[in-house]
Fold this sequence. Notes:
By secondary structure, the chain is an alpha+beta fold. It has twelve helices and five strands.
Amino acid sequence: MKYLTTTAIALSLFATAGCAQAQTTSTADRAQIEAVIKDYLMKNPEIVREALEELDRKVEAAMMASVRKSIEEDDRDVKIGPANAKVTIVEFFDYNCGYCKRSTDWVNATIKKHPNDVRVIFKELPILDGRTKTSRNAAKAALAAHKQGKYLEMHTALMNASGLTPDRINAVAKDAGVNVKKLEKDMKDPVLDEMLEDTLILANRIPALSGTPFFIINDMMIAGADTDRLQASLEAALES
Length: 240
């Protein structure tokens, strides 16, 4: 949509100016009107940009409406904070993603600072597994730790670790106070693989999601670990 020509936009504007009038307009008059509109838009190109930005916002809003239930109401997801919180933060992440690691402190600080006003939904998205061969296993370890009530501890520990081989994950789990034997058993639950596949499918339905981390703060989508922008968006949502 961002590649519409000025002429195409002019035609669109003309078409919406009034169907009845358009039907009675001669070809010559139509060409004259199109020329006037094109000339105006060429002299005021910012109008085109503003219109396209507004169109993008409407498209994103419609897209979000179609997937919001899957994003926010999956009972399998780990959620921290009250269901009626004023602000919902959704994070899609991979434990081998360096930018995800950079945003972890911000997420944890937000949970601690706003226990009643903010709800965080964690979406395990091991999109780097094809290269690392460890992202999916790490995600399953975090989800398995959740069964012991140790998700946030394990999540944070994995984000602060590297070289996430099975032995390394077990060591991280032990340091985080997780029962390693139970963890290994729970990681074999096929429900975890099904959950990760569903999240990958969901991510593909969100056009703006092209990598991790990816945040949704109420209706605002933010790609990357720009914590200043994340904080500003959070504060705006809390004040709205």
